User: Fold this.
Amino acid sequence: MKLVHISDLHIGKRVHEFSMLEDQKYILEQILDIIRREAADGVLLAGDIYDKTVPSAEAVQTVDHFLTELSRDSFPVYMVSGNHDSPERLSFGAELLAESRIYISPVYDGKIQCVTAKDEYGPVNIYLLPFLKPAVVRHALEGTHPCEITTYQEALEAALGQVEPDVALRNVLVAHQFVTGAGRSDSEEVSVGGLDNVDGAVFAPFDYVALGHIHNPQYVGRETVRYSGTPLKYSFSEAPYGKSVTVVELREKGNLTVRTVPLVPLRDMRVLRGTYLEVTDRKAYTPENKEDYLQIVLTDEEDVPNGMEKLRTIYPNLMRLTYDNRRTRENRELRASDPRENKSELELFEEFYEQVNNEPICEEQRAFLEKLIREIQEESL
Assistant:
């Protein structure tokens, strides 16, 4: 069975106020071509389908077209909601769509949906696990779970504890979570203190885990626990890296291969560095690459008046203009020397409390603050 794994489409996303919809439509057509060329037996779509919980009409139309094309070509889709999606909106009409083999994770109620597909080697159980917060799992399993669920690790353990995959069969999990050890990029939401981390060991019963949430393609712990990454670059921290879709082929139990197929965007995202004269020299650009999304880092010691406006006459999709010179380096050194930079919220509050009250906080107060900070951070995720 050959499955194409994609995730984090973020349809409707804007980057530095530039709409990415044209680029997203282009890359989705390319993904459709890859799925057809691979003659895939299914598509694993691991969350963050939209960039907003209430997507625009054009974003919805774009996803609708993509899913319709897959259905017309008889490609089953196994899709879960991510932290950017509204699970209620995404799963609307899920039972009706399932008749066209578009399977969408329902709103979590304590159960994980399992869809069984078959090939010449027998059944493949595909489990759909939407993005879960501890509060959601705690509410769904209230009265049935013996321990209080307060962390993401406990939430995943409890949710997956309701599933008992037959380890003699091939089992695939589609999920949207942050697994400890995965490398992040600037375009992702980061939980302060790593509260959303989960240990990859919770996925042990599954032959392949199709993950979403992390934007750079990578595996975590073992090659078969994998992030496919975004199909497009959404931050300049991703500029040096390529994008791809992941193709996983399951043969008999224990025989599995994973490979990637590169994607070529309509416009690349690049960082261009040099003096104003260097980056405006005709040798620095071509008619094609001057349309790329750019961050230009000028090394001139003096700021260029109306630099952004002038540079956009050559590079119309210039997103950011920054400087790297003596002034900016001195500013960075000053910020780096600020002792507050590397302190936690609790440490900063302790310092403030002691300055105001001329005495340190007690252990009871510290415990209360730790709990309060943790609850606020969880609510903000």
